[in-house]
Amino acid sequence: MNKHKMIPEKGVPSNSRVLMLFGQLEKLNRESMLVDPEIARQITAKILHLIQTQEKTRKEIVSKGSSGMEVILATLEVFVCVSLSVPGGGRRIGVFVSKGGTGILLQLVISASKESPPSEEVMLQLHSVLAKVGQKDRKFGVKARLNGALNVTVNLLKQNLQNYKLLLPCLLVLQVYSSNTVNAVSLGKNGVVELMFKIIGPYSKKNTSLLKVSLDTLGALLKSKTNAQRAVVHVPVLLYIYQDWHRNDTRHRHILIRKGILSCLKNITNIKLGRKAFIDADGMRILYNTSTECLSVRTLDPLINTSSLIMRKCFPKNRLPLPTIKSVFHHQLLHVPAGGPVAQLYNQPLGMDDVVDESDNNEEAEAENDMENEVEEKDHHAGNDDIETDINKLRPKETHSRPFEELKIYERFFMELSEDFQVMQYTFKGVTATPAAPKSHRPIIVPTAQALPPKTPTAAPLQGDRTHPGAGQPPILAGGVAARLGGEGEEMLEGVLHVPDTALLLPLHDPDLYVEMVKSTSSVPQFSEVAYPDYFGHVAPTSREHILERVYGVQRTKIFQDIERLIHPNDILDKVVYDLDIQSCPVVDGGESLKFNSQFESGNLRKAVQVRKFEYDLVLNSDINSNHYHQWFYFEVSGMRVGAPYRFNIINCEKSNSQFNYGMQVLMYSVQEAISGRPRWVRTGTDICYYKNHFSRSSIAAGGQKGKSYYTMTFSMTFNHKDDVCYFAYHYPYTYSTLKMHLQKLEALRTPQTYLREDVLCETLGGNSCPLLTITAMPESTSNDQICQFRNRPLVFLSSRVHPGETNASWVMKGTLEFLMGSSPLAHSLREAYIFKIVPMLNPDGVVNGNHRCSLSGEDLNRQWQNPSPELHPTIYHTKSLLQYLAAIQRAPLVFCDYHGHSRKKNVFMYGCSLKETVWETNISATSCELHEDLGYRTLPKILSQMAPAFSLASCSFVVERSKEATARVVVWREIGVQRSYTMESTLCGCDQGKYKGLQIGTRELEEMGAQFCVALLRLKRLTSPLKLRNHAHLLDVESDLTETRCKGSSTYLLEDEEASFMEEVDYSAESGDEPDNDPNTADPHDNHLSDSESNNYRDSLT
């Protein structure tokens, strides 16, 4: 084998041994792919030894003109490249950095710069190594600035603009420098931004690698708003360059260069001046046209997505087309706390509550002070900042906050604890905590057919149909849509509405009884109409409704259609077709526009604007006495054309993400379908997506945050029936009048063996009653033993619907109530095991008036449990008082559960409270005695996970957060001392695990969940009985489950927005990056329908 020969030259060490070692290093460098790190280490160790022991050798290596340093640097570069290319090699670079390697390299840069002229080869190799190693050193930018290497690189760059060989590594190092904010500002002051524009240019086949690196470096510099301001004048240049590359790169070989140009534009348009310059340079039209031409090529999606983001960001901000963002309805409070949200809302000058704010957050120039912690790693618990860290707040209170004498008035709500049942013919009379307000006797417009000219002398209902004649007056159709209800090919008979007979399918629904309930319901707008779905009722469909598979590119198509409004303004109709702010809503003639209505119980739609022939912008109403909380919608549509592709855009949503991006569909109810015997809500809509729009959200409504925008939820719809009346809703509606109707029907189902009492807990601010139910089993006899057993049954306290928009909570509660009142052996055993105290609707006023989250006080009632006001939050005040009374008499509930709905997660799951699990999620230290805790709080969720197909134990969390300290779950746990205190969250979308994986949730599954909760309580009773513990140890071994979970490192702490990603890159907002989604529909395609037995014997199957 021929040995490598190194010819001695001037400047090369003359020592023969050193000469040989450098020759070996050079050979290793040439064979970089086969280099053995151990051999290189041995050679460099020998060279180091010679340098340390021989002064002459050291001086020769570092002397001017010596190639020894170049060989060593070349070897280091090879080592770095090889290390980064092999698995685990990054650790070697980390060791190099930890030993001060980057500091030595930067010092070498300073030393080499002092030579006159500096060695080009040494500078080339130094910067090549720094470009790779610097990315692994978090303090690299600070080190370079402090020792002066930053200026050396800048000067080297300025002096070698035509030396492409040296220019490339210098730009790469500048890119790493720029990741530090202070460095980026300093580089901008030194003219580096203007320097970059001398390097980049129009389309060229030469030096494309250099151009790509230049654009990446410029993009990094422009992340600084100060540098972005310097580059504003270059926006037309960047647009011209982008157009040139778009026209000439016909084979799409330089996508990265084109994206680099767009990245620079994206960073410049982060500031207001940049957005203005972009608009002035006709950037919207340029990017719209270039993006449209790219749509057919899938590989150009990164360009389209970035262009879309820029255009949306630069779209001129508008305020909502409303006179005020406050609710169109107003309820005068008798007591308005000074400084509270309602006082602040109504002290705001008229017209000042919705000001367009286009300012940039923190637009002022960045501080140039060298902060020591600017490069420190962010605390890895940053995402858990909301977790409570005060152990004192995580312990139950030992003293009661209210004297017993004050609580004694609530004894009347617990008659079952003192009743002797000497007279078994028990009469159940309700009691009330506050006097009832008088009900208004306003006329109610029920869904009947308006009188039309009869074609026969008399009108008679069709056989098998029900009729509702209309309370002794000419029947009037809700919403004035009588003429539309003839049906296809059918004649409307005078005064007759063909209502499907659903008595067998819906034993708890009665249209006539529902109307009677509506008459006693008070609403702020004084609703006088009844919506068809609430009147007809809802029968759950027998077919499975799969989670919608997202169509690739649907979001950008919708966004481009929005951008066309700015580019082609003459195509926009902008015609208001419905407006609650106007006393008489516009009446549109000619049949060219849809007709809308939301003036019925729980309805919410404030305004409808026809944008194009088949496209409508919809604006939701704020919660009463509030200026935000836009999510719940429920409205009527009529006057549609069959087969036309309608698009609906709800333009004032507030949450940053939604399950509409993950397969959830809206709910639609067709009156024509109902008349045909299919009265049901069905999931519908295509091309559904949710994204940030150009409507500015006032900082007043955004908690003082500036620069916020609303979000659009958009869906497309094709109607199947002529002259139909359709209703759309966020989720399955469940009105307050429906609850009252169901409670009356449940009372009729009561058997002599069932103890059922309905009390009026209190009256709400709006004058509606808040019902309180007591359900248990009657004692078998009046013997002392039976009465004692009856009185000593443990209590279970349930509540629901504190948030009006979470209608699924009411459907779960309906399933619970029906099971409890059922005749099955399990239901009887459950009643014998517990006394149930149930508040089925904590916020009747919010439900009635179409609110999403608040009561008439304009506040979230589930944040008032710590200190509720009897005047402003009566339902919470009295419900908490009931629990305080139970705690005072040593009868605190065994289980407390508040039913809720979750808008951004799938499945059904629970939030509980645990001292130990909360501490585990934080950095606080605590002794083992402080963390002593009974793990029984995990038993009920584990039981549910084993028997309820929609329930997910993996989604449960038992961490206590600061922001939830005033919620029912946490207050009942801490103040009442209920260990098993839960919030049970039901998805609004569907499930991604278990039997219902890939399916959207429906009322059938929600009611089933309510029933399964009851069965789980019965199993909890049996399992916690001492005689049963041995046989069911596997169900109660929660300690090992908890330990195993922690050992695996999987936290029970769940972020608010946890969701799988899409295959398509989804751009949720103009500020965020792209987020993919991958939510496949994996349900069995053959499992498309429920069997007849499953449909008819659903509740029996629970036994």
From TrEMBL:
Alphabetic keyword roster: Carboxypeptidase, Cytoplasm, Hydrolase, Metal-binding, Metalloprotease, Nucleus, Protease, Zinc
Domain Peptidase M14: 732-1021
Active site feature: E985 (proton donor/acceptor)
UniProt cross-references to PROSITE patterns, sorted A to Z: PEPTIDASE_M14
Reactions the enzyme catalyzes: (L-glutamyl)(n+1)-gamma-L-glutamyl-L-glutamyl-[protein] + H2O = (L-glutamyl)(n)-gamma-L-glutamyl-L-glutamyl-[protein] + L-glutamate; C-terminal L-alpha-aminoacyl-L-glutamyl-L-glutamyl-[tubulin] + H2O = C-terminal L-alpha-aminoacyl-L-glutamyl-[tubulin] + L-glutamate
Keyword Metal-binding: yes
Biased composition (Polar residues): 1093-1103
Signal sequence range: none
EC code: 3.4.17.24
CDD domains: M14_Nna1
Entry cofactors: Zn(2+)
Gene Ontology terms: biological process: proteolysis
Subcellular location per the Swiss-Prot or TrEMBL entry: Cytoplasm, Cytosol; Nucleus
Pfam families listed in its UniProt record: Pepdidase_M14_N, Peptidase_M14, TPR_CCP1_N
Record field: compositional bias (Basic and acidic residues): 377-398
Region of interest (Disordered), ranges: 352-398, 1064-1103
Uppermost EC category: hydrolase
SUPFAM superfamilies (UniProt xref): Zn-dependent exopeptidases (SSF53187)
Gene Ontology molecular function, alphabetical: metallocarboxypeptidase activity; zinc ion binding
Family: Belongs to the peptidase M14 family.
Entry protein name: Cytosolic carboxypeptidase 1
